[in-house]
Amino acid sequence: MNLKELNPDSSPLAKFGARVRSSREERGWKQEDLGEHMGYSATHISSIETGRKMPTLRFSRNLDLAFGTGDEFERQHREIKHGILLEGFPEFVGYEGRAVELRLYEIGIIPGLLQTPEYARALADSAAQRGVISPEHANERVRFLAERQAALERRRPPMVMVAMDESCIRRWVGGDEVMKAQLDYLMEFAARPNTMLQVAPFAMGERRTFNLPVTVLTMSDRSMMCYAEAQTQGHFDREPTAVTRLLTSYHQLQAEALSQAESVAMISQLRKGTP
After folding, report:
1. What is the spatial distance between Cα 57 and Cα 91, in angstroms, rounded to a whole number?
2. Contacts of 140 (CB under 8 A, 6+ apart)
3. 153-174 residue pLDDT tens
4. CA dihedral over 176, 254, 235, 151, signed as positive or negative
5. pLDDT of 114 above 50
6. pLDDT tens, 22-63?
7. How many Å apart are CA 190 and CA 117, to the nearest integer?
8. Phi/psi of residue 160, each to 5°?
9. Residue 144 and residue 274: Cα distance in Å, rounded?
10. Within a 10 A sphere around the Cβ of 13, how many other Cβ atoms?
11. Check: CATH 3.30.870.10 for 89-113+155-272?
12. Residue 263 — φ and ψ, nearest 5°?
């Protein structure tokens, strides 16, 4: 097997596969040897190690028995099934904290990097109450977001350009006090010298260029990469053609969106409606 086929940082599934492979190789076992210990074929083991197949709970427990690892693989299986990060996102975050320019577009909620702790907590707790994630994962989401935000507070902060759909500021999250503080923070963010904040109004209609959240990063060597996210799947891409296409759409979005002054005025008007 080509070891380069799997990037452990690309997704929780890839991380699981890499851990299986390293544990097997530490013992000097071939895939056939591990399969014999567990009652699975070498082909099945290979599919798990390369991230092509989702491990079952039974398979994960058998791994712990074969390797004598307690419940390590069982816990990792549960993290995959109920995890906090979409595929491609861990790799993306590694670059996000080092980017010199970030271009963000979000729909429905305030972009993560601009969320107050109370706003982020309200979203995470709601997901836990619905059974989408566990309370532990809710705490991890909030903690992880705080780490991402802190990575941008450096001596030479990056230029951060944010375009958000009007739905982001009109969707009331966490009640009046939480939303009041969130809107205050957006206006504070817009006043910084290294930021740009624009609202893409509902009136844009069909001229809105994105239907999914998108981020485009520019690194210090001027290389660029992008990340797009759906409800259950994320996609990280460094291929120049794909990135250029998204960048063009982002520029078209900025041209149609409200100016920063108009955007702040809209946010301020909403803010006046809070107690």
Report:
1. 26
2. 84
3. 888 999 999 999 999 999 999 9
4. negative
5. yes
6. 999 999 999 999 999 999 999 999 989 988 787 888 899 999
7. 18
8. -120, 115
9. 29
10. 19
11. yes
12. -65, -45
Q: How far apart are CA 189 and CA 197, in angstroms?
A: 8
Tokens found for residue 103: 């271009």
Listed by start position, the domains of the chain span 3-81, 89-113+155-272
State how far the Cα of 274 lies from the Cα of 198, in Å rounded to an integer.
Answer: 21
What the block records as the tokens of 186 is 């957006």
Same CATH topology for 3-81 and 89-113+155-272: the answer is no
Measuring CA to CA, how many Å separate 242 from each of 102, 225, 238? 16, 9, 8
Tokens 């450096």 belong to 154
| Cα 128 from chain centre | 18
**C-alpha distances in Å from residue 125, one per residue of 121, 168, 186, 274:** 6, 18, 22, 22
pLDDT band at 202 (very low <50, low <70, confident <90, very high): very high
Geometric angle at alpha carbon 125, from 214 and 104, rounded to 5°: 15
Length of the chain: 275
d(CA 13, CA 7): 10
42 CB-near residues (< 8 Å, 6+ apart): 30, 31, 32, 35
Low-confidence winner among 98-107, 134-143, 264-273 (lowest mean pLDDT): 134-143
Per-residue HEC secondary structure of 219-273 comes to CCCCCEEEEEECCCCEEEECCHHHHHHHHHHHHHHHHHCCCHHHHHHHHHHHHHC
Report whether CATH 1.10.260.40 matches the domain 3-81. Answer: yes
Does residue 13 surpass a pLDDT of 80? Answer: no
Mapped onto helix, strand or coil, the DSSP state of residue 159 is strand
Q: Please report, for residues 2, 16, 51, 79, 190, the alpha-carbon distance to residue 45 in angstroms, rounded to integers and kept in the order given.
A: 14, 12, 10, 20, 51
Q: Which helix (H) or strand (E) covers residue 203, if one does? A: none
Q: How many CB atoms lie within 10 A of CB 82?
A: 13
